[in-house]
TrEMBL record:
Keyword list, A-Z: Signal
Signal peptide feature range: 1-18
UniProt-recorded name of the protein: DUF6089 family protein
DUF6089 domain boundaries: 4-201
Species annotation: Pinibacter soli
Statement: the UniProt record of this protein carries the keyword Thylakoid: no
Superkingdom of the organism of origin: Bacteria
UniProt keyword Signal, yes or no: yes
Length: 280
């Protein structure tokens, strides 16, 4: 979280020194793709998301945006059609907090047209912290438990994953000019997580006794949950048995409506400032 704040403070002068200036709002859904969910978009797995930021127009097509996005992702093996995943019986949720700076390009000039498709891409950082609930309903954060042996001496190649990561947001959308200085948009944004541990699942099971000795019984319980099923296998899987798919990293997504509210006075840019005028 600290890295996100430092990142946004560092880029904020790029926007605050320029006009025309816009406040941007976002409301929609967040979603995830990874070891507990193959499909990038499922209505059952969607969670509410929102965002806010600031936008500076470079010209009548190109803008620069800085902002924060907030959402939640999650998935449950119980909802899978895959027999192996149902037997594994894992689940997770995580809040996502993202800070980003994006370049946005409108294909048409919204001072002349009411509709324009657009694309965007940029850089960002996000914070996540996967958790689940134990058999007593208590919330349990998974990263400290080293469920796949991260940080254990017996597995020197498995390092603890960081909860703040770099990402490269990109996406597409459609803008509709509602009024002067008021533009509605609908967009789909894609984020490579650049880690395979957004869901705390990646590689293989580790030795039961080694995990128990290093992290305790709760780590063992959250690493394999097939024994919680009515007819589930009570035997903890052997060391090295597949737990996830490390060949593909995770993704998360934001899709929904954006609203850009122009704050520039009569569309004029103060002399000497860097952003040319754009009139809606």
């Amino acid at each position: 979280m600290k890295k996100l704040l430092i990142f946004l403070i560092a880029v904020s002068p790029l926007l605050s020194m320029a006009q025309p200036f816009h406040i941007t709002l976002f409301g929609g859904l967040s979603n995830y793709q990874g070891d507990l969910q193959d499909k990038p978009y499922t209505f059952s797995g969607s969670k509410a998301a929102f965002g806010l930021g600031a936008q500076c127009d470079i010209n009548n097509h190109l803008s620069v945006k800085a902002g924060m996005m907030f959402g939640r992702v999650g998935a449950d093996d119980k909802n899978s059609v895959d027999v192996y995943r149902k037997a594994r019986n894992l689940n997770f949720q995580s809040n996502i907090t993202e800070g980003s700076v994006l370049a946005q390009y409108d294909f048409f000039d919204l001072s002349e047209k009411r509709l324009s498709p657009y694309v965007f891409a940029g850089i960002g950082f996000y914070h996540f912290n996967p958790y689940s609930y134990d058999t007593l309903g208590r919330k349990v954060f998974l990263q400290p438990l080293s469920t796949e042996g991260q940080g254990l001496a017996q597995y020197p190649d498995r390092k603890p994953y960081h909860l703040t990561q770099f990402t490269i947001p990109f996406g597409i959308g459609l803008h509709f000019k509602l009024a002067e200085n008021l533009v509605l948009g609908y967009e789909m944004g894609f984020r490579p997580a650049l880690t395979d541990y957004l869901d705390d699942v990646s590689k293989t099971y580790v030795d039961h006794d080694a995990l128990l000795a290093a992290k305790g019984p709760l780590a063992v319980e959250m690493s394999y949950r097939g024994d919680e099923l009515k007819n589930g296998d009570p035997t903890y899987p052997p060391d090295g048995e597949k737990r996830g798919g490390a060949n593909r990293k995770d993704w998360y997504y934001f899709s929904g409506f954006s609203l850009s509210i122009g704050l520039s006075k009569n569309g004029h840019t103060p002399k000497g400032l860097g952003c040319p005028t754009r009139v809606y």
